[in-house]
Amino acid sequence: MTSAQKKPLIVIVGPTAVGKTSVSIALAQNFDGEIVSADSRLFYRGMDIGTAKPTTEEMQDVPHHLIDVADPDEIWNLAIFQHRAYQEINQIHDRNRLPFLVGGSGQYIRAIIEGWHIPPQKPDYEIREALTLWADKIGAEALHERLEAIDPGAAEKIDYRNLRRTVRALEVIFKTGERFSDLRQKQTCPYHPIILGIERPRKELYDRIDQRIEKMLADGLVLEVDGLLTAGYSPELPTFSGIGYQEIIQYLQDAISLEEAIMLIKRNTRTFVRRQANWFKPDDPRISWFSASENLVDQMTATIRRRLDELQN
Asked: Quick one: 299 exposed, middle or buried, by C-beta within 10 A (0-12, 13-18, 19+)?
């Protein structure tokens, strides 16, 4: 299928708290579109406040997909997401509507727009357990350094504090004898992606992050986390390794104070935002960047219309 024959996919990217939710909803309304979430934190039911999940009111005018599709102990990986995202996007096209892929999870976005071929790899729990025990002895950062020595490409994309992903990358390497980064081969994207990014000055973005976190606390983040644990979900689940949940769990376990937890959430979110920039680079020629402003939606609407017209001509 040539590029001209491919159906369009609008992709909205940008860092956490930049304003993707409200903008994507407005754009989808302008184009009779539907939104497919590419935020790995939004898959899980009951994890609403700590993920800044769109509210019922926000989602009532535009259909949203891949939100609340699994329980916290039903772990979705990249391969599952890609398969389901393709299904949702194709069905939106079948309804003669325009799909919008929206999110800040860089590898999930790239898996779609670059057509990654992700070989199915069943977990090898013996290797995983051995790697986890090794990490207990040498520390998460040292284990990440081992990954960097073997596969710099994979290590660059994984925060050393995300022990689960470091272990998974090494597990695949030891099981297959191939580099983790090489296994995610790029294929041809089945769509014609039109990628638009939203950016804000760093200080403004950090202020919005702080305000969002304060609102999460006011809205009941501590009660949400406590309720999930009371429901029987293990605090060791990978879903609770996300920023916000891990810190509040430490607070509930009396490991740190609430003030310390809030400080860590803010600091870790800022670090995460800086790492997001590795996925969405300002000089990426595929991305049309827009500074957040009062007429942002109008500007992005005009660009999408122009790009869609170009595809049809």
From this structure: middle
